[in-house]
Amino acid sequence: MQAIIHDSLVAPVVLPPVFWGVCLAALGLALPFGAAAHDIPNDLTVQVFLKPQGDHLQLLVRVPLKAIRDVVFPERGPGYLDLDQIAPYLPDAAILWISDFIELYEGETRLPKKPRVAAARISLQSDRSFASYEEALAHLAGSLPNDTNVVWNQTFLDVWFQYPIHSDQSRFSIHPELARLGQRVVTVLRFLPPGGAVRAFEFSGDPGLVRLDPSWHQAALRFVALGFSHILDGTDHLLFLFCLVIPFRRFRALIPVIAAFTVAHSFTLIASTYDLGPDALWFRPLIETLIAVSIVYMALENIVGGASLRRRWMIAFGFGLVHGFGFSFALRRTLQFAGSHPLASLLSFNVGVELGQLLILALLIPLLELLFRFVVVERMGTIILSALIAHTGWHWMTERAERLNQYRFQWPTLTPSLIAGALRWLMAAVFLGGLFWLIRAALRKKHNLEPRMNADERG
Questions:
Q1: Contact between residue 331 and residue 338 where contact means Cβ atoms under 8 Å apart
Q2: What does DSSP say about strands 155-164 and 116-124: parallel, antiparallel, or unpaired?
Q3: Each residue of 169-194: pLDDT tens digit?
Q4: Which residues pair with 105 in a beta bridge?
């Protein structure tokens, strides 16, 4: 690397040595890194270790070097990295491109934005030292020989940051904004609390603020919000609820229907979350296909006019079991945020789902009343709306059935664990059957009492 300074550009003044030190540092950082720009990479995986230790929080990060954009690295020979020249500038690059995109909190207090860089180095893509915290820490103490022939987009930048903290027993949170490094960024984070088991996280994009060791109420609030947003984002669940509401637009009439759907999906949601359901590859596309089938069936029942409250709540109960498995697929991806409170988080997710359903009912019922009163006759409106839903559900059903056909179903091998699982599900089926019978008997008793009470009142 060479630089030419013209005499005509030298100012005839004497400046303090500190000024020249700052200028040389900035010039050194600019020359090797600032000559050209790199394209935004498509797919990136960032590996992170976070460990509170004494009065410091240790943060180890591995980022593909191609994520460090707007820079050109010093090279030697036919495009190989000059590792000796690049080494002094890695700490500044790590601050600029990594720690500036990470917010860390001890309790509610944000840790310093500019941490100490204890070590930074270039690593080969074949290196596997980030398999564990101890290996990664030992690896960061070394460096690659300068005669290693490697190009810039086939390496990692490994960095060891240190943040001052008050106590390693505090509760820590992180907001990794590393999604800025590429088009699609997956962050794999492992948190090592003192004396506790390693907690693994995996984020796609920007997950927002993540509490690494949440209290039960923090976990509960997060999962209520997750359940609420999931039901509002789940178009198939919304259409199913829409089909439930169209023929019966009274809250009182809908109570047994919604209650049956809630009890059923809550049961399978909890069971599936605790790994009591099948784990075969074909199971998820099967459930997604059955959810589409439930939408088509309910819409067709509305069209032919066969909907009755007594039958509708039983059908809602059956299809609720299927939809519960659908909810569990979304919940499994987010249980990593539960910390040591999986049950509280699961129940809170279910509460969020129910709140979302209530909001949907509160909006749909008045809108349908206005539609059928001022726009279209009720029977015709029911047929038109249900036909549109059936058309959408039919397309989903055929598409999902095609995906399901790609999987080859094989009967599982008879093992003790399989028999135990079957017995658990058999017990659950007996419990659900008993619950179903009790609800049906209670509703029938109520139905028989109402005419008698009305007759007594008239008498």
A1: no
A2: antiparallel
A3: 999 999 999 988 988 999 999 999 98
A4: 110, 173
